[in-house]
Amino acid sequence: MHNKKILLAALLSALILVNISTTCQPAALPAKFEVTYLEISPKEINIGETANVSAKVMNTGGTSSLYGVNLYLDEKKVGTKLITLDPGFTQSVTFSFPVDEAGTHKIAVGEKSGTLTVISKLMYKQVEIEYDNGIARDCLSLVKPSTGYVVGFKPPANLFTLNKVRVFGLVYGSPGFHLTNSELQIWDAEQKVLYSTPFSGDQFPLRTRLGDNIDSTGDWVDIYIPDVQVDGDFYVNIYTGIPTGQGFYMGAVDMTNTHSDTSIRGDDGRDSLAPDWPYMPTNWYGDKSRVNWMIRVIGDVMVPQK
Questions:
Q1: What is the pLDDT of residue 25?
Q2: Which helix (H) or strand (E) holds 279?
Q3: Residue 68's pLDDT band (boundaries 50, 70, 90)?
Q4: Confidence of residue 244 (pLDDT cuts 50, 70, 90)
Q5: Is residue 202 pLDDT above 50, yes or no?
Q6: pTM of the entire structure?
Q7: Element (H, E) at 24
Q8: Which of 17, 61, 69, 230 could disulfide-link 31, Cβ–Cβ 3.0 to 4.6 Å?
Q9: What is the mean pLDDT of residues 199-224?
Q10: Number of C-alpha atoms within 13 angstroms, CB side, residue 160?
Q11: Backbone phi, then psi, for 21, in 5-degree steps?
Q12: How much of the chain is in helix, strand and coil states, percent to nearest 5?
């Protein structure tokens, strides 16, 4: 009986010690996840191409747990990967996704972030730059001291490849008359000649002072240019020589003018913008603000591909 009491007391003591030991053990720390690495590859793509993002996640807590790894594009969640990590372990995750908006985008996973540059695919597009409405009020000859018709152009993009000049006008003179020593020039923004070619009036209607075609009107003629590339604003100057009464008459539109001018040729043979408008104010075209020359250009620009 005595031995049984001793045994029972020992068992109770052991249970008490186990309970005390269990109660005193610290609880395991919860799972804690940290993104330790982020890579964007490539860092520059075209619109519609696939971006790849790699990240490494580490569980720095004390228990295993499920974790959702979220990918953000410009603060907007665009992907999630679920992983289960034991304490102290690291796992890699990857995301692949297309981007359809050009620009510099912020990519973030957890506290790690980087940038992705998306550029537009470019394609050639042919454009026509025009400042007239196509309705000629008259065809005008030049008067001294002006010797050329000028239109300044602003291309839709800085790099513009010019391959055609379109002109509306006529030639006035005796039967069989031909233009001589006339030129079509392309100037840069500083009025430096980039290209020059003879300007023949043979393709334009001829209005004679006497004859059946005395009332002949002007017409459009295309003058082809061998792909002259301009960077920024440029001019087209059509030098027609010293006015003599016979010669080229340029189509003029009666509408607000912000681009048309005239040029003069100096003693050194160089052309430049005329300082004064040459026409008398007694006619409608004496008001420079109303006269648009009918000169257009056609060329190629690089534009984003849709």
A1: 55
A2: none
A3: very high
A4: confident
A5: yes
A6: 0.65
A7: helix 2-24
A8: 61
A9: 80
A10: 25
A11: -65, -40
A12: 10, 55, 40
- Quick check: 211 and 240 in contact, CB under 8 A? no
CA 110 to chain centroid = 34
Query: Which residues contact residue 280 at a Cβ distance below 8 angstroms, ignoring those fewer than 6 apart?
Result: 286
Distance CA 184, CA 288 (A): 22
Q: What is the pLDDT of residues 218-235, one digit of tens each?
A: 899 999 999 999 999 999
State residue 5 phi and psi, 5-degree precision. -65, -40
Give the pairing type, strands 112-119 and 103-109: antiparallel
pLDDT tens digits, residue range 116-129? 999 877 778 899 99
List the beta bridge partners of residue 140: 250
Distance in angstroms (rounded) separating the CA atoms of residues 259 and 300: 21
Whether residue 213 contacts residue 207, with contact meaning beta carbons closer than 8 Å, is answered with: yes
Other CB atoms within 10 A of residue 25 CB = 7
Residue in 49, 219, 13 with CA at minimum distance from that of residue 121? 49
- Distance of alpha carbon 53 from alpha carbon 114, whole angstroms: 10
Q: Could you tell me the residue ranges of all domains in the chain?
A: 33-119, 123-304
CA 245 – CA 164 distance, rounded (Å): 28
Structure tokens at 190: 């500083």
Q: Please count the residues of the chain.
A: 306
pLDDT of residue 303: 73
**How far, CA to CA in Å, does 131 sit from each of 125, 241, 266?**
19, 25, 28
- Has domain 123-304 been given CATH number 2.30.30? no
> What dotted CATH number matches 33-119?
2.60.40.10
Q: Give the H/E segment covering residue 61.
A: none
